[in-house]
C-alpha cells in the first residue's frame, strides 16, 4: 500500500483499519486480503475505504446478505473500481427507480454482477420512452427477463469506450439467455 499513498492527501487510518478488519471478519483470509489490496489498493485508500462501505451498504439495503456481498467482492474485485462502482450504483438506482421488489434486485445483482459492473445504463425514463412502456411495465419485463436490462446500455458519444465494453456485455448476456432457454443452469 505504501507506494499508493500520497503526501498530499489525508487518510482516516481508523477507517482503513476498520475496512480491513471488516473484510477479515466476513471471511477474507490474510493471503486473499493481501492479493486484493495489491490489485485494488483504492479499496481501502481512496476515501479511506468509504467507497467500500457505501457500496456494501447499498447492496445490503437491497437484500444481499453479508456473505453474498463478500463473495461478490472476492469473485469480482474489479467491481470496486471507480467505473464499476458508478455502474453498479446506476443499476441499483435504475431498478429502484422502476420500483422493482428487492428480491428481484437481489437476484439480478447476484447473477449478473460482472455485466452490471461493465455497463452504464440509461435512465429509467429514457428506457421507458424507447420501449413505449410505463415504469411498472418495464419492471414486469425485467422481472421475467432480467437480461433485457442490459439492452438499456447508454450509448452516448462521450462513452464510446464503454460502448465497446457494453457490446461484449450484451453478447455475454445474449449467450447466457440463450443457454438458459436451452435448459442450462445459470453459473454452472
From TrEMBL:
Domain of life assignment: Eukaryota
InterPro entries: MTERF, MTERF_sf
Keywords: Transcription, Transcription regulation, Transcription termination, Transit peptide
Molecular functions (GO terms): nucleic acid binding
GO annotation (BP), single: DNA-templated transcription termination
UniProt keyword Transcription present: yes
Pfam family membership, one: mTERF
One GO location term (cellular component): cytoplasm
Family: Belongs to the mTERF family.
Protein name: Uncharacterized protein
Origin species: Noccaea caerulescens
Amino acid at each position: 500500500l505504501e507506494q499508493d499513498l500520497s503526501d498530499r492527501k489525508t487518510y482516516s487510518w481508523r477507517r482503513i483499519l476498520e475496512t480491513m478488519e471488516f473484510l477479515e471478519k466476513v471471511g477474507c483470509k490474510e493471503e486473499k486480503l493481501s492479493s486484493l489490496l495489491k490489485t485494488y489498493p483504492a479499496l481501502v485508500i481512496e476515501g479511506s475505504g468509504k467507497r467500500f462501505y457505501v457500496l456494501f451498504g447499498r447492496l445490503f439495503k437491497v437484500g444481499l446478505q453479508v456473505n453474498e456481498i463478500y463473495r461478490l467482492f472476492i469473485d469480482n474485485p474489479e467491481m470496486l473500481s471507480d467505473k464499476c462502482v458508478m455502474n453498479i450504483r446506476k443499476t441499483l438506482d435504475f431498478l429502484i427507480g422502476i420500483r422493482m421488489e428487492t428480491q428481484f434486485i437481489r437476484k439480478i445483482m447476484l447473477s449478473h454482477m460482472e455485466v452490471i459492473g461493465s455497463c452504464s445504463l440509461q435512465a429509467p425514463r429514457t428506457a421507458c420512452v424507447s420501449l413505449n412502456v410505463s415504469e411498472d411495465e418495464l419492471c414486469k419485463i425485467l422481472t421475467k427477463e432480467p437480461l433485457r436490462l442490459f439492452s438499456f446500455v447508454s450509448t452516448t458519444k462521450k462513452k464510446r469506450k464503454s460502448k465497446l465494453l457494453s457490446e461484449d456485455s450484451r453478447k455475454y448476456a445474449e449467450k447466457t439467455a440463450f443457454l438458459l432457454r436451452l435448459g442450462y443452469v445459470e453459473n454452472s
